[in-house]
Design brief:
alpha/beta; six-stranded parallel sheet; Rossmann fold; 46% helix; globular; 2 domains; 12 strands; 382 residues
Length: 382
């Protein structure tokens, strides 16, 4: 008997490549998996690494009615041809188009995972339009999976759907490979070489941020908080690219460029060496779905300072593996940074729980197995 076919869709191939790394290969043991997104080198990477079939359907992230109709028609034709049992989408535009196309192509099981919601941070007519789009998506889906408890609550608060909402495992779309994200994978020689390259002394306390260097990630507040510390032997390590959309304030950019204690290293394919030479992750983002970098830092044994937002406030348990501060609050952020630097007993307590708290809740195979069980449940009731 032929295996049930599953089509996994995302707007751009990078989402399949990064967010679902390893998951498609795992699912391909039980189903015939087809990955669908816009075409670029990431889609070829998915094909080769995951061992699954691929089809490219161009989709625009932005609202583009003419292009969206073309994409919708192409998805509909693909679903009619492939006749999958399940279509499962991630990312907003792929979710809307895939769920609508799958319904009218008579796909029995139509799943969308919300990895984060855009509309809570918007206002006015644009927010209403985004809410309407998500309501349409949910109406055409058979099952809705919120990535975490915070995303689930937002869907309930804004009355996006009446369908049952169940977080899989403990949240996060793919979990963390804790064998890969392990401080033991980076040798002492590698660590010392990187410290020398960056000018970090053995006596320095290193705060690290990983992500896009944009205002929405709280970088303006982070830099201001760091500059206010007035304690010696501290470094701020920024790992990630600058982006022209949502740019940083001029004074923030000036400080990053001119302050010798702020080290900006750009995008890095492997963040583990930067985590292992650091002492604390600081992640002051305004909004997230379920941030991978906070889990990665924890798996590498780092305590974290995070803002009280979806995902971050689920990964971090106050006073256990990190601490939580209000969003956009420079004073609270600065105070937390000072305490974690100066209070060694407290810091060691947080650090001792950091890795185990990730392994017990977000180990990758636990998430994959929970998703497989959910697929089998959905297939039974179709």
């Amino acid at each position: 008997m032929a295996a049930n076919k599953i089509i996994r869709t995302a707007t751009v191939a990078m989402s399949l490549n990064i967010l679902l790394k390893g998951q498609l290969r795992y699912l391909n043991q039980f189903f015939d998996v087809l990955a669908v997104s816009g075409y670029d080198a990431d889609l070829e990477t998915v094909k080769n690494r995951e061992g699954v079939s691929i089809v490219s359907v161009a989709m625009k992230r932005s609202i583009a009615p003419f292009q969206d109709l073309i994409s919708l028609y192409r998805l509909y034709k693909l679903f009619k041809k492939e006749r999958p049992t399940i279509v499962h989408s991630i990312t907003p535009k792929a979710g809307l188009l895939s769920m609508v196309a799958a319904k009218y192509a008579n796909v029995p099981v139509r799943i969308h995972t919300f990895t984060g919601l855009v509309f809570p941070a918007k206002k006015g007519l644009f927010q209403k339009l985004l809410i309407l789009m998500d309501k349409v998506l949910c109406w055409h889906a058979t099952h809705i999976i919120p990535e975490g408890a915070g995303v689930k609550q937002d869907l309930l608060d804004y009355k996006i759907t009446n369908k049952p909402l169940e977080v899989i495992a403990n949240g996060n779309v793919n979990g963390i490979d804790t064998t890969f994200f392990n401080s033991n994978t980076i040798s002492e020689q590698q660590q010392q070489s990187l410290r020398n390259e960056l000018g970090i002394d053995s006596s320095d306390f290193v705060f690290v941020f990983i992500g896009r260097l944009v205002a929405d990630k709280g970088i303006n507040e982070l830099v201001r908080a760091f500059l206010s510390l007035a304690i010696p032997n501290c470094k701020l390590l920024l790992v990630g690219p600058y982006e022209t959309e949502d740019p940083l304030q001029p004074e923030t950019l000036k400080a990053i460029q001119q302050n010798d204690s702020i080290l900006s290293v750009g995008f890095q394919h492997d963040v583990r060496p930067y985590l292992v030479i650091s002492d604390c992750m600081v992640f002051p983002s305004y909004r997230e779905g379920f941030p991978n970098v906070v889990m990665q830092a924890g798996a590498m044994g780092l305590p974290s300072i995070v803002t009280d937002i979806n995902g971050s406030n689920e990964i971090i348990i106050e006073g256990f593996n990190g601490t939580i501060v209000p969003s956009k609050n420079v004073t609270a952020l600065s105070n937390a940074m000072i305490r974690i630097k100066e209070d060694e007993t407290w810091r060691n307590q947080l650090q001792s729980n950091a890795r185990s708290s990730i392994i017990s809740r977000y180990e990758q195979e636990l998430v994959w197995e929970a998703l497989l069980i959910k697929y089998k449940e959905f297939l039974k009731v179709q």
